[in-house]
Amino acid sequence: MSEALLVVAHGSHLNPRSSTPAQDHADAIRASGAFDEVREAYWKEEPSFRNALRTVAADEVYVVPLFVSEGYFTEEVIPRELRLDFDVTDWESDGTSADSVTLRPADVDKTVHYCGPVGTHDAMTDVIVRRAETVTGDPDVGDGVGLAVVGHGTKRNENSAKAIEYHAGRIRDGGRFAEVRALFMDEEPEVDDVTDHFESEDIVVVPLFIADGYHTQEDIPEDMGIADDGGYPVPARLDGHDVWYAGAIGTEPLMADVVLERAADAGADVDVDVRITPPTTAVADGD
Q1: Looking at the whole model, is its pTM more than 0.85?
Q2: 184 and 130 in a common domain
């Protein structure tokens, strides 16, 4: 039986870069031959969620949401638009532990394995660390370095903060970095005061956002005080610290492997030991 992967993402009518991560990761997986078929669908762009399953030829479809946290989109919008009779209690999740559930769509004759979002998968912890390596150009970064994992934060969805705190805690427990903090745009502790939360001279700031847009390219740099002529230097000197700002984690190539792991956990016949993306050491620049 053939298997298909459907990567679903938010997309945007205003930000042309919003769909880039989904396209790039789908292209990488497609080129690897891991699935017979790989497609993308979006909430705010075409192809849309509503018609996505009708474009898939395979009988078995693994749906992986390219979202950071569990909540409104993963629990309501996506299942509704894909016409899945989904009940959030099927996941039995505490806000970061959604796995997968197997369902039959109401309008097409297919078996759908609906997965939790990539942002809460344990492999995302590795992507955050990789992002720190990428932005600093140091594959061994960590000793004497502080790491800030940044999320949006919102009182409307408590799971938004849970995902950030979950990965920050896992990295902290690993002991690689001198300090690890979870910071937020709209909750305390805030990223505005990033240097107040660290003693380390070098601070790597990794925002847990899927795509680069206003939040990651304008709001967060301005909030931290590193914005400069429409961009930001990497590193930026701020209050006696060197701040290495990484930009949206969703653009990190290793994300493609997290998508694969989500599908594999749901039963897809893929070999997750074969990594799609090799280590990278290119230094990011916000200008």
Answers
A1: yes
A2: yes
